[in-house]
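Reopening this one. Same input as before:
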Amino acid sequence: MKTLEKADFVKIFTPVSPSIRQDVKTKKNVLWDEWLRFYFRYVESNKKIIEMNTTPGLFNKVAGKSLDIFLGLSFEQLCMRNLPALLDGIGCDMHQILNFGPFFRQRGRGKNKEEGLQIDILLHRKGQILTLFECKYSTKPIGTTVISEVGRKIRFLKAPRNFTVERILITGSGITPGLQKNDYFHQILGVEDLFKLSY
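Same output, byte for byte:
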C-alpha cells in the first residue's frame, strides 16, 4: 500500500479532527488516479460487452445515474488536488493551517446512534478556526438546498464551542440568484479558482 501511495495511485486519509488530537485508528484508502477509478468503475466489469458492442450509446446505458455520483467524487478530488489555489482564493496562508483533509465519521452502531458524516475538505486553522469546503458538482446552478445540507454537517460535526466554522462553497456550475442573495457562505468559488495562483 505504501508503494501505491508513493506512486500517487492511492491516498490514505485519516479524518481531520476539530481538535489537535487526531483519531488515527480510522483510515480511508482512496484510489487517487483518475484513469484507474474510471477503469475499475466502468470498464473492467463491462469488458466483454464493450468488446462485442458495435453501436453508439453503450456507455450512457452502462453508466446510467451512477455517472453523476462518479463525477461528484471526481470533482471533490480535483478540489483536493488543487487545494493551494483554493487557499489562495480565500486568502489563507499555508502557515495558518494545522491540519487538512476530508472529515468522515461512520454511523454509530448498537447503543451509539451517532449520525454518519462526511465533509469534503476541512481545514483546521490557527485561531481556533475550522474551514469547511463543500464541493458541489452539478450540471445546473447550485440552489439554496445546499444551505440545509451544509447546516446539517456543521451540526453533526460538533465543533468545540470556542471554534469558528467558516463555510466555503466550490461549484463548477454557478449558483442561483436565490443562493447569491442568501449570503450564507463566507465565500463561493468557481471551477476557475481551482487553477488560479497569485504567485
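So the earlier flakiness isn't reproducible anymore. For the record, The chain has a mean pLDDT of 86.
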